[in-house]
Design brief:
This protein is mainly α. It is built from 11 helices and 2 strands; from the N terminus they run αααβαααααβααα.
Length: about 300
């Protein structure tokens, strides 16, 4: 082994070691931050005597928003700490620009449209139907505002926490393809504890995470990915009123029913547990590759 090869090998070993300890530290800070902030929020709500309605065992949308805000704040704190440990400045993850806003709105459209196509296919096969409106008047306006806010915060929090610094830092060391696969596996694993989740649902969460991470790779920031995620949440939980990763929340727009086999309609996991979602995710990846033919984050690969 010549000196140049030895030097390159040592650099890669140290690079992987540096990546591992950074990811471990990030995870530790994120978990501690989430737990600490969650305890603080619960204490404040208890002190104020605030309780959210949750009929029929549904989880309050208000609690979803609060929990996602906790994840968002913890992710921001962990990211700030870890970015300062890197020698090179990190690329802007969520640049406040007109382009970022346009990408978010485009992603929001993609997310809502994709879920609408999926629900349409399930309905055509007899697996889903709407029986009427569940909200009207002030309740409709109030819950619509809550779900728009909740979808945005959810997309922002989970994308930043899992596909922000961890994805970009892993890509810097290993390249984007291994980073996308690794972080998508972790993203799916984080949903394993959800009630009602099943293997098909977890597989689709994994592929959805690949789509979200690929959007970051192709555009260079998180906005398109955040928009897609927010659109999926808004359509699934509010517009079509179906389970979301095994969770059921308050504030559904319509009353809906599933019928037929769970492999077709998703069952308790929601439409992400349907086999019909997989070809749609493949089409989504193809559209992404067509729309963004050259990765904007090539500079990260070049560093590898």
């Amino acid at each position: 082994m010549n000196r140049r090869v030895l030097t390159t090998t040592r650099a890669r070993v140290f690079g992987v070691f540096g990546l591992v300890w950074r990811l471990v530290l990030y995870a530790a800070l994120l978990i501690v931050g989430i737990r600490g902030l969650s305890m603080l929020v619960r204490a404040v709500l208890h002190h104020l005597g605030v309780r959210f309605a949750h009929p029929d065992g549904a989880r309050p949308v208000e609690s979803l928003i609060l929990s996602q805000l906790v994840i968002l704040v913890a992710a921001i704190m962990a990211t700030v700490v870890l970015v300062r440990t890197d020698r090179e400045s990190a690329p802007p993850m969520l640049p406040v620009t007109a382009l970022g806003g346009a990408r978010f709105l485009l992603g929001l459209f993609w997310g809502v449209a994709g879920l609408a196509v999926l629900m349409g296919l399930i309905a055509l096969t007899g697996g889903y139907r709407i029986t009427g409106l569940a909200l009207s008047g002030p309740h409709l306006a109030g819950y619509a505002a809550l779900w728009i806010s909740g979808a945005f915060v959810n997309g922002l929090a989970e994308n930043l926490a899992m596909l922000g610094y961890p994805l970009l830092r892993t890509a810097k060391t290993l390249g984007f393809v291994p980073a996308i696969l690794f972080m998508s596996a972790l993203f799916a694993a984080a949903h394993m504890g959800n009630p009602g989740e099943n293997p098909l649902g977890l597989a689709s969460v994994f592929l959805t995470a690949i789509l979200l991470a690929a959007a970051i790779w192709r555009t260079g920031d998180l906005w398109l990915s955040v928009g897609i995620h927010a659109g999926l949440v808004l359509a699934e939980d509010f517009l079509f009123s179906v389970p979301d990763s095994g969770e059921v929340y308050t504030g559904h727009l319509v009353s809906s029913q599933f019928s037929g086999p769970a492999w077709l309609n998703g069952g308790a996991a929601g439409p992400e547990g349907s086999v019909l979602i997989f070809p749609l995710l493949v089409v989504g990846l193809a559209l992404l590759w067509f729309a963004y033919s050259k990765p904007a984050s090539r500079r990260v690969d070049d560093d590898h």
